[in-house]
Amino acid sequence: MIYEELLNAFNEELKDIHLRISSPLEEANLVIALCTLSLVKFQKAVEKHGFQNTDKEISFFKSVKVIPMQYLICYTELRSCELNMPKGGKLLQIQFLETLEKKINKFLNKHKEFMVYLELKHTLLDKYYYTRKYLNKIQSIKTYPYFKDPKFNTSHDTLLARIHGFELFSKYIIQRKFKIEHTINNFIEKKLVWSGSYAGFIEFVYGCQAMGYFNDGNAETSKIVKILGDFLGVESGNSSRTYNEIKARKGSRIKFFEETGQKLLRKMEDEDGIDS
């Protein structure tokens, strides 16, 4: 059948792109172009040939059209991710990816009922979800685009593609985070490890946060402790309790900064003495 031939051709070209291209951005651009072209071919074929029966129509919108659609969605998100990835450091990149993960989870949770229907492989509502007859009769699903071509869309085919596309994109995010974290871990092991006390580390974090040095003072202290702690290999502890203990000190409450400042001044004085 014409739809199976078109799908096989799409899969072969997609496989070829995966094998030839290593750059995420270049791959995304090529896949997006391939998906767009393939969907145009599918649309023309549907307008020309239609479907023999309802089962064939359901099969097309549920299992055929969804393939290029899900890759179009995945690689559109992937391209946006790569173009907007922070250039300021690995930790900011991880924060950025975690924000995307939260958005994906929020979307998937919003459509949990439909996802349960998919996971349990139910088919009772397929004629409502995957035939064009009910496109404008089911009002509960509001997905982009708001206007759909009644000859090439059903009430749920785009939602199905978005779910699969975001699941694919989520796997990419996990792999991307792993590579970044692996780079950070290697850097920590070979280059930089916090060798001071945990209390000194907490005082350092709270002090810098009080100065507004992290995200202009808008970052959560607990998140700063987690990110810097992971980066510097600091053993985990109770940061809030440690901070309260620092506040309750009988002597200097900023021991870390006072000792650090004194040692830095002594270093400068020693160096000035050597140079004179």
The gross shape turns out to be elongated
Return Rg in Å: 27 Å
Task: Report the portion of residues in β strands.
Answer: under 5%
**Residue share in helices?**
over 70%
List the total number of helices: 12
> Biggest sheet, open or closed, and with what strands and sense?
none
> Gap between N and C termini, in Å?
89 Å
Low-confidence parts, pLDDT < 50 over ≥5 residues? none
Mean pLDDT across every amino acid position: 89
Q: Could you tell me the number of beta strands?
A: 0
Query: For this entry, what is the oligomeric state of its chains?
Result: single chain
- How many domains, as an integer? 2
SSE string, helices as H and strands as E: HHHHHHHHHHHH
The assigned structural class equals mainly alpha
Describe the structure.
By secondary structure, the chain is mostly helical. The chain folds into two domains: 2-190, no CATH class; 198-275, no CATH class. Helix content is 71%, strand content 0%. It is built from twelve helices and no strands. Helix 5 runs antiparallel to helix 8 (157-190) and helix 9 packs across helix 10 (221-232). The radius of gyration is 27 Å and the shape is elongated. The N and C termini lie far apart (89 Å).
Short characterization:
The chain has 276 residues and is mostly helical. It contains twelve helices and no strands. The chain has two domains: 2-190, no CATH class; 198-275, no CATH class.
